[in-house]
Amino acid sequence: MNASVVGSGYVGTTLSACLADMGHEVTAIDIDEETVERLNGGEARIHEPGLGPLLSAYAGGRLQATTEHVAAAETDVTFLAVGTPSNPDGSIDASILLAAAEDIGRAIADKDGYHLVVVKSTVMPDVIDEEVIPQIEAASEKTDGEEIGVAVNPEFQREGSAVRDFMEPDKIVLGTDGDERALDILAELYQPLVSDWEVPVVETGRREAAMIKYANNAFLAAKISLINDLGNVCKLFDVDAYEVADAIGLDDRIGEQFLRSGVGWGGSCFPKDTAALVAGARAAGYEPLMIEAAVELNDRQPERLLELLDRHVDVEGKRIAVLGLAFKPGTDDIRGTRAKPVIEGLLARGADVVAYDPLAAETMAEEFPKIEYAESAAEALEDAHGAAVVTDWPEFADLDAAFDAMANPVVIDGRRIVERRRGIVYEGLTW
Description:
One of its GO terms (biological process) is polysaccharide biosynthetic process. The protein folds into two domains: 2-204, Rossmann fold; 239-431, NAD(P)-binding Rossmann-like Domain (Rossmann fold).
């Protein structure tokens, strides 16, 4: 098929590359000229395992990038994969999505025949019906369900494994409100994945599809917060929360995934999506207590890590190493990372902070330009009076010699990546 993708961030770039790998002709559309130039050269502005080889293989061939939205008129289906950031109250700012919808509406205004627009961006259900569709209809002067179709196809890709998650999905959700032409196009588009992996396909309404994305992330966020809460209780009774989690994970009603307790969740999706659900529910007159509790618990975990450090070190004026800045290993993304409140807490205590991350240091330096950034974990730990482990990069599991070079070998592990051993004062956050 011939597809266009508006937006070349984490979601859009992965979507474009994976569609090309499935055999489709793809046009990536982005307003940033540098992004377009790099995509056409086979490069991405983001770090994502497996993405580079796909771009190198298809850029200039099945994958072309442009700043011209009119290119969408030459395709069968257009995906809107632009950002939907949070407003100060947690609600979604849909202005970028609405601008993209207007641009695509204008681009297909003179196109003969049916064109499908698929919303990949995450927005609350009412935004689709009340804002996105009217914007496309007004700009194109075409009617939804007749000359154009609008579908919702949420993404369930995790940073650090986005390519694999797209190519081997747990499910594909198609929200079309029963538009058979839209279903036929999306069925053909995703046919290679469905046939190769026998993926469950959920055919539902547009509002339901939009909510499935939020419900999915809210449930996972709440599961992590619950195991962190249980882990905090386990710590009080000198119980290893990981042994407890291994046992309860054998119950198929609970499952073993997302039971690694620690310093909490971050990233772009969980914080933004839980905030949007809370804001939307409150606007409708309902207090979503479970979701609010999940967020509150998550916000507390970095402070618990710092309190454990306080038990062993008066950090004022002391060199303290922060290991890991990205919100998870395998990415350079610092959005929602638990390292930010840890660094803020250390600075508030008067600590001399030195940080290390294999990918995210340059980005973090834009937010914390006055702290020191080491070239390696060993350099960060040298002469340090304490260390806080915030991201579970695999290299942090092999730092025995580096810990020996600390002035005061106190290690507070927020991710259970460091092995407890003699010669260091070791505290696991929930074990």
